[in-house]
Task: inverse folding
DNA sequence: CTGTTAGCGCCTTCAT
DNA sequence: ATGAAGGCGCTAACAG
């Protein structure tokens, strides 16, 4: 039962239209070297037979799949979901499809997924958010497929092109806001310091800000979490219940920052009257909380879009003027801090 | 410059290992019919030459791409991002990759993307969240590629398999919570009534709940938005500033519900003391707001996972016992309503 | 257990 | 402007 739809090929169309398959191929691919009448004949035959080109066969013959691979930590993070939207929009614009893979930031998964993507003959690869190790480089360098890093970077020489923001500087400016508000005890809610992409650089920015303002970094005011709301909540709660509790908190991402807001509130205090809080990223949540969260607005969508655009340039072998793009961020001072401008 | 890495094929490996390509193919595909020593020879050659199988060629020859297409409204919605995570996890488990496409719920895009995915010879297709029209059915029925609907359904005869929840019933139960709290003026924050997947059924549930409890549906207490936070905020604000303002609100999704919470608070009132609010979906935001949002917990991840699992069964031609899956939901009563159990 | 031989459906010179 | 023919790299019978 369920009679298999016998696949109809370019050859069938050719026969039906009374031309050669080369001609059919030409009209399908928009080659101008086809007489209008011939083209019409072919188009009609295609229409009549319901012909659907086989992209796999085309890929094998042409060595192009119009597909790019995207290795991402976790699509369920608002940050990466937004970024992916930027990628996909630009990909669509250039007629590429994306194969999406979640790596959970696990090196082994990243490597394995990258391999799988290359086997699938993707025309390009977007690598998001993971640390680039020698093993990564070995794979990246061992292929002609262009690779662009997004929301991460590789400091190594001969590094891959990337699109990101200046994490340290942004973190420093965020901390500066708190300093200028006059706070002397500024808490820090971070991620793993072993994370070279977010955790460490944002910590570094915090530290530099304090140091440049002659303030000492007190380890007791540093708490490390996993970037999630609850870890932010818990860490902030600890901080606030300690002696010498901070009067301001810089959280390295918005989820943790919102957790901190609620920790403050649950303790019967107020933001920003009692404790100022600033986050990082500017995910939708930041403007869906009371008070509205002050934060570093990271152009998530743009990072994805620009990275994808850059990748298309490599795939088309266009000349690249700028292969290491540092996008601007912006301080978005809302209601969880008192300072309204800097 | 940039000497092209000459692609090394199964044929090269065969020569290097001193066997035929068929044998190489066998070891690459884990065919047991290979003598251990031979296998080792081949494996060594593969290792030595850095051979990477070409999945496109394999796809053409085997007519399987181990790739499934996913048409989704918008990956940047928490709801769909979560669902996609479920899809991808199960896909990975069964060694499939997913090609992700955002449709923005536009019919034309959905159709065009579906076509493109079929051209790419995906082994299966997951269609999320859009309304299924005759044009969709025409494409779906015109191919042997199995199609599973997720978070949507098609009432038509000979319909596609689907995985979803009972929207009407869930909406009714959510409204019931408010009714049992004794509210007589229950506002409704909905989506377009022309949306047959969310907007209409959830409205219907609201209406049925009222009717079954002998309450009349007052159109003045119905506000329609676009599912986003701000539209929820604005609509709730209108509702609350009207005469005969509702004392409880059912919002058809969490974003709007949280908008409503803030509208109430910005008006100087309290949730749930002055106004009870219940949402729908249980996205992370629901537990990242104060008060914690009571809502209908939809198993987003599971919908994706189950749909993908179902699809694998079709792709493997396993026998399907249940092709129309209605997953259970759960009322998650937190702090934005007063009733704690039902 | 291993090798041979056809394709899979299409693109792409190269002729005509 | 069109056709003929040779791959693209691999799988899948079918022999042996």
Result:
């Amino acid at each position: 039962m369920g009679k298999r739809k016998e696949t109809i090929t370019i050859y069938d169309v050719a026969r039906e239209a009374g031309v050669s398959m080369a001609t059919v191929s030409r009209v399908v691919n928009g080659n101008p070297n086809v007489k209008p009448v011939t083209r019409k004949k072919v188009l009609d035959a295609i229409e009549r037979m319901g012909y659907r080109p086989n992209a796999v066969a085309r890929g094998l013959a042409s060595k192009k799949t119009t597909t790019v691979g995207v290795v991402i930590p976790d699509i369920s993070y608002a940050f990466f979901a937004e970024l992916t939207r930027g990628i996909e929009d630009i990909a669509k614009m250039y007629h590429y499809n994306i194969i999406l893979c979640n790596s959970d930031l696990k090196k082994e998964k990243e490597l394995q997924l990258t391999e799988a993507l290359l086997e699938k003959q993707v025309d390009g690869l977007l690598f998001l958010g993971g640390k680039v190790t020698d093993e990564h480089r070995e794979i990246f360098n061992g292929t002609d497929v262009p690779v662009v890093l997004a929301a991460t970077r590789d400091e190594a020489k001969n590094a891959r092109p990337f699109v990101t923001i200046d994490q340290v500087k942004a973190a420093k400016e965020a901390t500066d806001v708190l300093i200028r508000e006059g706070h002397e005890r500024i808490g820090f809610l971070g991620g793993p310091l072993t994370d070279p992409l977010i955790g460490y650089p944002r910590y570094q920015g915090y530290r530099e800000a304090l140091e440049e303002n002659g303030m000492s970094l007190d380890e007791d005011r540093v708490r490390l979490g996993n970037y999630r709301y609850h870890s932010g909540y818990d860490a902030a709660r600890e901080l606030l219940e300690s002696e010498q509790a901070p009067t301001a908190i810089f959280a390295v991402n918005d989820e943790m920052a919102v957790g901190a807001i609620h920790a403050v509130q649950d303790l019967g205090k107020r933001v920003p009257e009692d404790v100022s809080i600033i986050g990082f990223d500017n995910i939708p949540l930041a403007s869906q909380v009371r008070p509205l969260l002050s934060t570093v607005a990271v152009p998530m969508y743009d990072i994805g879009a620009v990275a994808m655009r850059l990748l298309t340039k490599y795939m088309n072998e266009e000349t690249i003027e700028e292969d290491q793009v540092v996008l601007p961020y912006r301080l978005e001072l809302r209601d969880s801090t008192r300072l309204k401008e800097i």
In short: Residues 3 and 66 of chain B are 31 Å apart (CA to CA). The longest strand of chain B covers residues 67-72. The mean pLDDT of chain B is 94. The first helix of chain B runs from residue 10 to 17.
